[in-house]
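Exam review. A common question shows you a sequence with its structure tokens and asks you to describe the fold in words. Practice with the pair below. Do the first one on your own.
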Amino acid sequence: MLRWMLPLLLATTGAAQAASYDFLAAPQVDLNRVYRIDKATGEVGACQYGLKDGGSVGVTLCYPPGEGAGAQPPSEYGLIASRHEKEGGVFRVDQRTGAMSICYVLNETVVCTPQAK
């Protein structure tokens, strides 16, 4: 292999493996929660602001992926919020297959229903 191609190959491989995320606020108007999705794997997490006892600065509370919210088969995933002002969850959509699932926080983790069409 030509020596000049090796750095280019390594840089391209690293870029292909880098995660790309989308973020979406929960549609519930009195909830300060933001969901995060890995666009390639469909893994979903969430974070929100929390009050800290005795301090003026709060904390960021994050919820890791739980049941159904972990990595899915490789595809192109996104998040869509319903327009329901009392809905705390979001839809995870597979933009290649059209499959959807609902994701929300339950017992300190993000969970998602099985994907369906």
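Now try the second one, then compare your answer with the model answer below.
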Amino acid sequence: MRLNLDSVPDSRRTVDGMWWPSSRDAAAELPRLIAAVDQRLGGVTVRVDLNPDVWDDIPRDFPARGRLVEVNNSRDIDSHLVGLTTTSASHTSLLLMAPGAVNASAA
């Protein structure tokens, strides 16, 4: 998994970063994403929004650092984005890159 994330989410931006998951398995990928995002932004992610057409094995929720993170899967969500909501109600949008896609600017 690779993640390129702006250090401060900004509501004026459409996208706050990019995420290259290793697979389409949401149950395997989401806990690693949340751990990385929480560490980098210093927040506590409580919800993930994603489009089910892009993912396999989507959990309803999953444990992360002593809490459950809710997963909202809806076809109304742009299939190219993953949304994260924190306890402070801030929202982070990540551009979803296909597994195996390469970008030299990724962190």
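Model answer, second protein: The mean pLDDT is 88. The first helix runs from residue 26 to 41. Full marks require stating both points clearly.
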